[in-house]
Amino acid sequence: MKKKLLLFIGILIITLTLLAITKSTIFVESKLCVGCGDCVVVCPVDAIQIIDGKAVIDADVCIDCEICIRSCTYDAIRKNK
Length: 81
Ligand code: SF4
Ligand code: SF4
Hints:
By secondary structure, the chain is of the alpha+beta class. It has one domain: Alpha-Beta Plaits (2-Layer Sandwich), CATH 3.30.70. 37% of the residues lie in helices and 17% in strands. It contains three helices and four strands, in the order αβαββαβ. The strands form two sheets. Strands 1-4 form a two-stranded antiparallel ribbon. A two-stranded antiparallel ribbon has the order 2-3. Strand 2 (48-51) and strand 3 form a beta hairpin. The longest helix is centred in the N-terminal third of the chain and has 20 residues, at 2-21. One iron/sulfur cluster binds next to helix 3.
């Protein structure tokens, strides 16, 4: 049981590290953003701030998890393909 937990944690760390070294392609379509802050709350690495009423993503912090995309009911967060 303990081995499985350690394996899971190891895989999680490796996955997050690989995601972190990949440049973020997530961005906010500012004309669609209403500054509700829903994305700020869900971001696991605090990569999003509301500045002048709009969400701004720090690409150096973002790990591309895409959680914010699903949280935005205004469809204001996109990902470059
Ligand atoms: S959830 Fe969408 S509308 Fe709300 S602050 Fe974030 S990007 Fe803007
Ligand atoms: S993709 Fe994930 S890490 Fe990046 S800003 Fe959105 S919620 Fe935060």
